[in-house]
Design brief:
Blueprint lengths: L4 H11 L5 E4 L4 E4 L3 H12 L4 H15 L6 H11 L2 H12 L6 H6 L8 H11 L9 H4 L2 H4 L13 H20 L6 H13 L3 H9 L3
Antiparallel strand pairs: 1-2
Helix pairs in contact: 1-11, 1-12, 2-3, 3-4, 3-7, 10-11
């Protein structure tokens, strides 16, 4: 029997191999988790703690994880930690408490260093609530159903009204795909599965999954 796109997606979710690693700034060591769910919970707890130091560590941890495979990872993390201000962290903590909908504009308005465009603002949004949100980065944005809806710059995706609508569609699509799978999955699990498909050069299959809904 031929494999269905849904079966391929389930396999891709299981095969997602981006490292579940971040940095524990309180412990002063790199920390590897047994699963992405455990990493999600670790960063979520820091971000929602209400404590400014923990929030700073959580945001730094997102950058450490998000840039893990990049040679400039440490530079980005150090740059953030030395330039983010107490006022920005206080504003971020307040914004977190009052997020509405996607929250992209509210998170952008804080003007946190390195959290200004779609890739890392949606990482921030996702780790705040991994049960209901997912990441939209440049690799995913190249898929046909999203590419025609997004207004992109050469190296990044800005936060604007059109792109906020596209992000909402992306989240809803991942919800819909998750509901069709045999085992309970979150939107972020679906997003990571599609990321895995794209990362392993199965773009046509990823497009097929999105085209059925988007």
């Amino acid at each position: 029997m031929d494999q269905t796109p849904e079966d391929a997606l389930i396999e891709a979710i299981k095969a997602y191999d981006y490292p579940p690693i971040t940095y524990d700034f309180l412990g002063g060591r790199e920390r590897r988790f047994s699963s992405m769910i455990n990493l999600d919970h670790f960063l979520q707890d820091l971000l929602l703690s209400g404590d400014m130091r923990s929030l700073k560590d959580g945001l730094s941890g997102i950058l450490y994880w998000g840039h893990y495979r990049a040679g400039f990872r440490d530079h980005r993390v150090i740059s953030f930690r030395t330039t983010v201000s107490d006022v920005q962290l206080q504003n971020a903590n307040e914004a977190i408490r009052h997020l509405d909908g996607t929250g992209l504009f509210g998170l952008k308005e804080i003007e946190l260093p390195q959290f200004s465009n779609m890739a890392f603002i949606t990482k921030f949004r996702t780790f705040l609530d991994p049960e209901h949100y997912c990441v939209l980065d440049s690799k995913i944005a190249k898929l046909g159903p999203l590419a025609i809806r997004l207004k992109r710059q050469r190296t990044y995706i800005p936060i604007n009204t059109q792109n906020d609508r596209a992000y909402r569609l992306w989240v809803d699509t991942c919800f819909s795909l998750a509901s069709r799978l045999q085992i309970k999955h979150r939107p972020v699990d679906v997003e990571r599965g599609i990321f895995c498909l794209v990362d392993h050069r199965k773009v046509d299959l990823a497009d097929q999954l999105l085209s059925a809904i988007a």
